[in-house]
Design brief:
With 267 residues, the protein is an alpha/beta fold. The chain is built from ten helices and 14 strands. β2 and β3 form a beta hairpin. It is elongated.
Length: 267
Amino acid sequence: MKKLSLLLLLIMISSLLFGCAGRKAGELVVGMELAYPPFETKDENGEPVGVSVDFAKAFGEYIGRPVRIENINWDGLIPALETGKVDMVISSMTINESRLEKIDFSKPYAKALLALLVNVDSDVEKAEDLNREGKIVAVKTGSTGHIYAEKHLTNAEILSLPDESACVTEVVQGKADAFIYDQLTIYRNHERNPDTTKAVYVPFQDVEYWGVGVKKGNTELLEKLNGFIDKFYEEGGFDKITEKYLKEEKEAFERFNFEWFFTDVNK
């Protein structure tokens, strides 16, 4: 019995030591899925880089804490917050009601909207043109585009596919009239397929806002984040990030009349 108790004690001590070794004193651990360039990605050496990485590091400087980025699969980000593995999540995450039941969010720091990747031979010139019998719209299953299509494009045939690339292929090959997804993804896929596609803005849609996720009840960190976001905007922080990572994209958004990620988010 004593041996068992001693063994349990050693296991507990080892766990504590491992936890301490895994996190430096005062370190701010930020969860991201490094799979959405240039917001969250890796450089050629496998190091975290991108808009969200710079944003997180700037916040760390603001509160005087070193930042460590944890690369976590999307489905694991919220559980990582809930269990205390990370202090925050900055991963182009939309603020919505279902997530607010599990975690808290900062005020919005960016916004994202939908657009259409349209086959060049289709007569679709605007989103409303898709809402007709005989039109086929490809959607990524469970995405915001899927939700939008089911609500607003009720006369079209909705082709639900498991991933983005499959949706793009349907449009490029002319099997679907359009693919509805976020503006940045649509722009990039149009750039890759300029001869077979065109990019079309979706008007009159609900704006999706991105926020920084924190553990439920962590009001101290939340207040610091909200103050930082205001300051970062006032001092042109997002303008500098745009110039560094998204200069060409911003110019393209202006050509397509797309709304920009960091324009009047909290106004």
